[in-house]
Specification:
Elements lengths: L1 H18 L4 H15 L7 H14 L2 H16 L2 H13 L4 H13 L4 H19 L3 H18 L4 H9 L4 H24 L26 H24 L4 H11 L1 H15 L8 H14 L1 H19 L2 H9 L6 H16 L2 H12 L10 H11 L9 H10 L3 H29 L1
Helix pairs in contact: 1-2, 2-15, 3-15, 4-13, 4-14, 5-6, 5-11, 6-7, 6-8, 7-8, 8-10, 8-21, 9-18, 9-19, 10-19, 10-21, 11-12, 11-13, 15-18, 17-18, 17-19, 19-21
GO cellular component, one term: plasma membrane
Pfam families: GntP_permease
Keywords: Cell membrane, Membrane, Transmembrane, Transmembrane helix, Transport
């Protein structure tokens, strides 16, 4: 009975978001309270569960996500993203332009959320397409495939970071495994798949030219890349130091302090404010305005993540997760495949990759531990499942269609198929990695 209530609540969540168009945050709150009541949780205990679910989920994430959004805005505002794209375009040339676009999306996509990255990089896609006289889809899809993979697979993006926390995974291992899985997914779904679309013509209703900064105002390429990747470099570097200097307690403790994701992001913002801001002649007050705007942009994302944590907490405290685990024991599907499948179904129903991943987390959490699933790979399995077959209930589907001037059919054959390739290739990579690691 408990499992039926769980499934009914998920259906209710899907209907509220996809059909009734209720705000996702409110939908999660309504479903969470309803689930708690139906599952027999005492009414006086529900507020405590709501607060715990929200607090535990956001407690270790809010600072990282907000600072990550600030860094992403600064990378774009300073011209660092433009510099990276320009250098890669000039380096790779006409023949390998799709590879340059993939690499640009890969690098810039580490600090940028997908929707932010799309809006900021779409002028570059138009500029390159016009300069080389190539179809927009052929030029743009590889870059957007990279952005999508980075958003769905790798920390510090919201869903992967939340999954790392909920599954008690190792951040560094998850990032390294994610890179191993992400690269083939990007290559196949990006430059290779784009070759099949080189004849796909589009009719954009707007003509976007990149609003480039003058060259003398751009940061150097080393500064641009290092500043954009600094959080990753700090975390990986301090992890390496702590392992090489394992006999020196003071060094290890200091490395762990600096390498903590929160500390790494704080340090990065302080450094990047100088390297991509005041050093380039920008006023500190203008940079602070950028940071405020960045925080506003991701406010609702934070609430959605927190509310998803509430639903997970309800499932855990009422024991329904254990009931589901008992049923799952009878299935012959491997835990990683099952986690991917559940998330993929939610993605088809809900549209949002972030919401699908966070909703699936509470359901598949029992697969970790007694079922022997690696929590680091579980993060990636849910992440890859959350990218499966973006279609008409996903805002990214419409962003791609409208900006590139495609028909519904063309968007399915390009964007939706690309997202499906990314998801399936990611799953294959995860299953292979699970066998060889």
């Amino acid at each position: 009975m408990d499992v039926l209530i769980l499934l009914g609540c998920i259906v209710m969540l899907v209907l509220l978001i996809a059909w009734a168009k209720v705000n996702t945050f409110l939908a999660f709150l309504i479903v969470s309270v309803t689930a708690a009541l139906l599952l027999g949780m005492p009414a006086t205990h529900i507020p405590q569960t709501v607060n715990k679910g929200l607090g535990d989920t956001l407690g270790s994430l809010a600072i990282i996500i907000v600072l990550g959004a600030m860094l992403g805005k600064l990378v774009a505002f300073s011209g660092a993203a433009q510099k990276i794209a320009s250098v890669l375009k000039n380096t790779f040339g006409y023949r390998y332009i799709t590879w340059a676009m993939s690499l640009t999306g890969f690098i810039v996509g580490i600090p940028l959320f997908y929707n932010v990255g799309f809006v900021l990089l779409i002028p570059i896609i138009f500029s390159v397409a016009y300069n080389y006289r190539l179809p927009l889809v052929y030029v743009g899809l590889p870059m957007l495939a990279s952005l999508s993979v980075m958003h769905g697979f790798l920390p510090p993006h919201p869903s992967p970071m939340a999954l790392v926390t909920q599954f008690h995974a190792d951040l560094v291992k998850t990032f390294i495994y994610g890179l191993i899985v992400a690269v083939p997914a990007i290559v196949i779904a990006g430059p290779i798949f784009a070759k099949a679309l080189i004849k796909m013509q589009s009719k954009p209703t707007v003509t976007l030219q990149a609003n480039d900064l003058p060259d003398h105002e751009l940061p150097g390429i080393a500064n641009s890349i290092i500043s954009a990747l600094l959080p990753v470099l700090i975390i990986l570097g301090t992890t390496l130091i702590s392992r090489l200097c394992s006999g020196h307690v003071a060094i290890v403790n200091f490395a762990r302090f600096i390498g903590d994701p929160t500390m790494a992001m704080i340090l990065t913002i302080c450094i990047a404010t100088y390297t991509l801001g005041t050093r380039l002649g920008k006023k500190l007050t203008d940079i602070m305005v950028i940071y405020v705007d960045a925080a506003k942009d991701i406010a609702m994302i934070l609430f959605i993540i927190g509310s998803a944590g509430i639903l997970k907490q309800v499932f855990v405290e009422t024991g329904v997760s254990n009931s589901l685990a008992a049923i799952l024991q009878g299935l012959t599907l491997p835990p990683l495949l099952l986690a991917w499948l559940i998330t993929a179904v939610l993605r088809l129903c809900l549209g949002s990759a972030t919401v699908a991943g966070l909703t699936a987390a509470g359901i598949v959490f029992p697969l970790i531990g007694p079922h022997g699933a690696d929590p680091n790979l579980m993060v990636l399995a849910v992440g890859s499942g959350s990218l499966f077959c973006s279609h008409v209930n996903d805002s990214s589907f419409w962003l791609f269609k409208e900006y590139l001037g495609l028909s519904i059919k063309q968007t399915f054959l390009s964007w939706s198929l690309m997202e499906t390739l990314v998801s399936v290739i990611g799953l294959i990579g995860i299953l292979i990695l699970d066998q060889v690691k």
